[in-house]
Fold this protein.
Amino acid sequence: MENNDIDKNVDVEIYDCITASNPKSFFLFAGAGSGKTRTLVNVLTQFKENHGNEFKLKNKKIAIITFTNAAADEISHRLAYDGIFSVSTIHSFCWDLIQNFTIDIKEFLVVDLKKSITELNVQLSKSRDPNNKTSVSNKRKIESKTKRLELFPKISKFIYNPNGDNLTKDSLNHTEVISIASHFIASKKLFQQILANKYPIVLIDESQDTNKHLIDALFSLQLINADKISLGLFGDTMQRIYSDGKEKLGEKLPPDWLTPAKQMNHRSKSRIIELINKIRKDIDGQHQIPRIEKSGGVVRFFIVKRGIDKPSSEESIKEKMSSITKDITWIDKSNPKDKINIPVKTLILEHHMAAARIGFSTFFRPLYAVDKMKTGLLDGSSASINFFIKIILPLVLAYKSNNNFEIANIVKKHSPLFDKRNIEKESDIFILLKTAKTSTDKLLKLWNEDKSPTLLEILNNINESKLFNLPSDLKLSIERSTITNIEDGNEELKDNESLLAWDAALNANFNEIIKYNEYISENSGFGTHQGVKGLEYDRVMVIIDDDEANGFMFSYDKLFGIKSLTTGDKKNIGEGKETGIDRTSRLFYVACSRAKESLAIVAYTDDTIALKNNLLKFGWFKEEEIEILP
């Protein structure tokens, strides 16, 4: 290492890919802290200077697909909001592509809905009891899907909000938008031509976590338009977190693809980079180097016997880290909710570990246990959860602060009572206002005398008054709450796991919604190993405890050799399939690579000596970096 500009050639390679008369597609390996956004912005700024006017004249754009709205905003800002760049999230990009294809969307949905109705009818015919929860749920689903089919002739255009709840009859949901766009890209020639002409350059940030069906569709598009399209993927397969991302994305690429790699980690000090290099050494061998001025850094692994008081142990470890690093900030408690200057970021394995510590487990655990509900629970795309977060929570906060003006605004904005169709003549307004006030007062009385009603009590109140429209899952949960018999069998559980989850979650009181919202909004001191990808902190504490995590997707005990591999693990390894150890290694890499200056890893275990010995065998830590707490 002679200088900090060792990766300059990468910018040149990528620029050549998108500007040559014969465009090239590429996968850019960009490990933790490698500055991939800087490369993206540098290349596109140069492109704008040299080819921006040409693109504008031809009405062409460069599509930049990001994983979050925050990332899209940051990139747009750094590109000065120039019109040749279309920077958007995955959902926004897909909607932009399909929104004018109303007839094609209808055709797709008709096939999809009819298939779903057929499957539900089959399940219903096999049911032993037509009045149990499963049967009631399936009947309502069939009714809802059938009614939706009947409405299609009246819909002249579909609507969709990538950041909203999409509850109206003419709206599409988030999953449908991705599925429809992926299908159109992969199968419709006219659609492919329009896309290739409009976006001759498509760049995807965090490509390892981009929906695999969309990635596959774009691969097929590039294959048949290789001379017209440059498809660029920016990512790091070691940082793939979400299950709907494409496995082994950087492998078996077409032979004409380029695979540039960034070598430098600009974020962390050298000791931390040394650790994360060792974590991935046997997985893909990718190796990073630190900046010249970033030598040093502190890494410590603290081993704690399970059963010891965790908060006390973790505070003690912070004091030890403060002493080791000569950094008083490890024990600074002055701004616990300062998201910009967080003294110590505590990372835990699973969100429900935070739920248990902060106090929203009853609400969170059942929903998070359903794989297909996780994304909506964490990224704000769930209409049912947003009903509580975006309508009920602001209403309650306004009530507690005696802000009648804000209460009126919320009700006016969200209540169907104020739909224009309900106000046919002026006299109706006074009746509606009185009805709305009576219903609102009745709802808010649930919080009198510092009470915290259950979510089910809130829904029953609203369902009776019709003050707000309820999302379909919640509406169905109210009806299911009066039914006690549940059909046995794995098939019932699989088919209705989302509804069963809501049945349990609605027993939570509303205080849990407040705490959940604080956590998701990053107003707590906790984050998850998964949730902090792309972020960085001076001081990081990583908490490892498989027992508390209570999950089956990850296992630090297996990663560190404390637990033996199962027969299924060995079979998956033999067949080259992903295992829990693979997923856990990636989580560990993501968590450790967030640290810039110092890193404390806290592992709770039943066998402290075996864990220490195994860590030394791995060679990840020096003996003086491992401490068993008494």
Q: What stands out?
A: Confidence is low (pLDDT under 50) at residues 487-495. The first strand starts at residue 26 and ends at 29. The first helix runs from residue 8 to 19. The chain has 27 helices and 13 strands.
